[in-house]
Automatic annotation (TrEMBL):
Keyword hit for Lyase: yes
Annotated GO MF terms: lyase activity
A Pfam family reported for this protein in Swiss-Prot or TrEMBL: Aminotran_5
Organism: Ruegeria halocynthiae
Lineage of the organism: Bacteria, Pseudomonadati, Pseudomonadota, Alphaproteobacteria, Rhodobacterales
Location of the Aminotransferase class V domain: 29-246, 324-408
InterPro entries hit by this protein: Aminotrans_V_dom, PyrdxlP-dep_Trfase, PyrdxlP-dep_Trfase_major, PyrdxlP-dep_Trfase_small
Keyword set, alphabetical order: Lyase, Pyridoxal phosphate
Entry protein name: Selenocysteine lyase/Cysteine desulfurase
Coiled coil: none
UniProt keyword Lyase, yes or no: yes
Domain of life: Bacteria
Amino acid sequence: MLHQTPGLIDEIRARFAHVDACPFQGPRIFFENAGGALTLNSVVETSAKFAAIPDNQGRDNIASHALVDIITKAKADLSVFMNASGGQFFVGESGTELLFRMIRTACVNAPEGRKVIGSSIEHPASRSAARRWAGIAGLDYVNVPHDDATGLVTAEDYAALMTPDVAVTTILHASPVTGMGMDVAAIARAIRAVAPDCYIIVDGIQHAAHGQMDIDSYGVDGYAISPYKVFSRHGYGIAWISDRLTALPHDQLIDAPATGWEFGTRDTGAYATMSDVIGYFDWLGGQVSDNADRGDRIRAAGRAIHAYETHLTNAMINGTGNLPGLRDMNHITILAGADNPAREGLVSITVGGIPSADVVTRLNQQGIRTHTRKADHYSGNVLTPLGLNDCIRISLCHYNTEHEVAQLLAALKDMKP
């Protein structure tokens, strides 16, 4: 694990901006990573560098050729990072916008009267797109209910509602409310067993920072991430699409290349910062393994990140040092259960007798940054069935420490109405 290598956590933390202090608040612990992870210092430097370059891609000059080479390299890096041997990557406005575009394209090209299937655990990014474009395209939308107790939806849940006339399916890789990761490969297999030609589109936004991505193993057609949640910055999203989704008629300029999915001139700096992120995973993999292959190093980094974040969430739930864990605090309720192996770096709780917004405020006053999730259009699909109006989301990443977890437990232990 990362914390078992002397000095490694300190080396990791040194690579991130604002790791222990907010530029507005001062010293603080950052447990709001699901809302946007910390940014690599290299990403900050790269962003500034490219913001100053006036040239665009596609021109016959040295600068333009260099920009094209940087984009080409970033796409090759992404293929290794996400293990995608086919298809293509492209940049858009945000992960949400890219999910809408992929889902819209799949729906409007489906024969009228076919079906779209998605799950009630999904973030509204994919759920809203699927319901909206199913209605416009004359398709029936089918909802797969998730399990309220575990915060999960399974391959068996999808299989129970699958029929051969399903044309489009959406899957959430990890929930930003419960923190639970879904078995995308198993769900996709269950879908294809009944509707082999179905277009399958995955929301990987919450999952990307917490473990390996392995597109070749999933058997899907679209996968979207939001780089600001995986150590890059705001202002863009990244999508991978299969060759067959690429080839569908889609929004594009008249007479433009048929395989093009990007609109206008994209920011070369966005692509370059993803190379920074992937370079970081490569570096980290070299610290935790002796692999000579870059892809193997990146996968080793993903495994180490997942194992360490599981260690941190277990410390949060079961206690650390002489501090009781959340499960032993009578005034704390843990969403989706204390013992849930699907958890990915996130614990959501309620505190008896105190509105979640007040808990977040009290923690903020002690320099601990968390977030309130309300039963609104973002999280109501998860919270309302549990009879909750809100919860406190504590989301961490691999640069957090057990000492920070202990400070959180100390703050919550004596928190009373």
